[in-house]
Write a structure and sequence with these properties.
By secondary structure, this protein is mainly β. It has 2 helices and 9 strands. Bound molecules: zinc ion. Zinc ion binds next to loops.
C-alpha cells in the first residue's frame, strides 16, 4: 500500500549508478524507499520548496499572471516558482517576480506557508510591493495583469495554494519575514 504522500514509484533507476530501484521498507513507520539493487543507494525524495509573491502595484492593484505551461495552463497565479538549491527563499521570490512579471519587488511580510497531503510542493507566500520595473511576461506566461481585488478570477486560479494565499492575503494575514 502506498503511503499517502509517496510518489517514489515514478522513479525507476538509481541516480548514482543507473541500476534498477526496488521499493523497500526501511522503517516500519515510514513509506517504502526506492533502494538501488546494484549499489544500495537510498533515494530519499524530499519536498519541493516553492515561493510566491502577492504583489501590490503602484496603482494599488494585485499582479497576477496567466500560465503558459502545465500544470495550470491558462489559469491565473501570482508570480512564483521553485527555489533553487542553496537559494534563500526571499531571493527566490524576488527573482521569480522579476522573471515572471518584469517587476522589482520589496517583500513586506510572510502571508502563510501551504502544504497538502500527497503533494510534493511546500509553498511560501509573501506580501510584496512593486518598486520598479515594467509589467511584462516571459515564455512561461500568457499575460500579466494588474487587477482590482474585486476582479480576482477565483474560478480560474491555477492551484489550491493560489486560492488560499490570496484569501489569506485579503484576510490580512501578515507575519514577520524570518531571518
Ligand atoms: Zn545505484
Amino acid at each position: 500500500m502506498l503511503h499517502p504522500h509517496d510518489d517514489s514509484h515514478t522513479f525507476q533507476f538509481c541516480p548514482r549508478c543507473g541500476g534498477p530501484l526496488e521499493r523497500r521498507v526501511l522503517k516500519a513507520t515510514e513509506p517504502q524507499r526506492p533502494v538501488c539493487t546494484r549499489c544500495g543507494f537510498v533515494f530519499y525524495l524530499d519536498p519541493k520548496i516553492a515561493v510566491g509573491a502577492i504583489i501590490r502595484s503602484e496603482h494599488g492593484r494585485l499582479v497576477l499572471v496567466r500560465r503558459a505551461i502545465e500544470p495550470g495552463y491558462g489559469k491565473w497565479v501570482f508570480p512564483g516558482g521553485y527555489v533553487d538549491r542553496g537559494e534563500p527563499l526571499t531571493a527566490a521570490a524576488i527573482r521569480e517576480a522579476r522573471e515572471e512579471c518584469g517587476l522589482d519587488i520589496r517583500l513586506d511580510a510572510l502571508v502563510n506557508i501551504y502544504s497538502y497531503p500527497g503533494r510534493a510542493p511546500v509553498i511560501v507566500v509573501y506580501a510584496a510591493t512593486a518598486i520598479g520595473g515594467t509589467l511584462a511576461v516571459d515564455d512561461e506566461q500568457l499575460e500579466a495583469a494588474e487587477l482590482e481585488t474585486s476582479a480576482i478570477p477565483w474560478d480560474e486560479l491555477a492551484f489550491r495554494s493560489t486560492h488560499e494565499g490570496l484569501r489569506d492575503y485579503l484576510d490580512g494575514h501578515r507575519h514577520p519575514i524570518p531571518g
